[in-house]
Amino acid sequence: MSHIGFRSIVRPDGVPAQNERVEESVVEEDIREFGPIDYAIFEFPGNRFNGAIAPNIVDLVDRGLIRILDLVFVKKDESGLLTIVELSDMDQDEIGGIAVFEGEVTDLLSQEDVEAAGEVIEPGSSALFLVWENTWAAPLATAILQSGGQLATTGRIPVPDVLAALEAVAALD
């Protein structure tokens, strides 16, 4: 089984690792229409996860914008002990519509990946570790590869930073 190697994505201190340019020879026949893959760890301090995010995730899947590749729910007690919680062991009110993905995920995440994810959440918290494909971008990704292009880097800009920059630009006008 192939795992995503989470430790190479986020250091134990929770700081994202720098993106490294990886050069690969891609044979055109091997190119599959696959969108970019993202992951996120959604932390709920005080173990307050209640499934309220489930309808939004289900909506993104239903509209064909993303495909869930793996998801793991964990709880970290006050002493720091991390426990993987099976969706089937959770109350329906607690997980909401996320239960529809049980049995449909790919088990990309290894035990080591989950333990590394646990290092970034605070004691007394629960978290949903989610891996998804951005299916909306698959045709573009395929076209880039078929045109001889490759991803040089990627990143995210925090929303508060964008809002501050937009305010600064508006103030100049």
Keywords:
173 residues; four-stranded antiparallel β-sheet; 18% strand; globular
Beta-strand percent range: 15-25%
- Most strands sheet: 4 strands, antiparallel
The tally of domains stands at 1
Q: How is the quaternary structure best described?
A: single chain
Low-confidence stretches: 1-30
Name the strands of the widest sheet in spatial order.
1-4-2-3
N to C succession of SSEs: EHEEHHEHH
Overall geometry comes to globular
What Rg do the Cα atoms give? 18 Å
Report the mean per-residue pLDDT as an integer. 79
- Total of helices: 5
Structural class: alpha+beta
Number of strands: 4
Helix content: 25-40%
How far apart the termini lie comes to 55 Å
Give an overview of the whole structure.
Helices cover 25% and strands 18% of the residues. With 173 residues, it is of the alpha+beta class. It has one domain. Strands 1-4-2-3 form a four-stranded antiparallel sheet. The N and C termini lie far apart (55 Å).
Compile the SSE list and pairings.
Layout: E1 37-45, H1 54-62, E2 67-76, E3 82-85, H2 92-95, H3 111-118, E4 125-133, H4 138-146, H5 159-172
Antiparallel strand pairs: 1-4, 2-3, 2-4
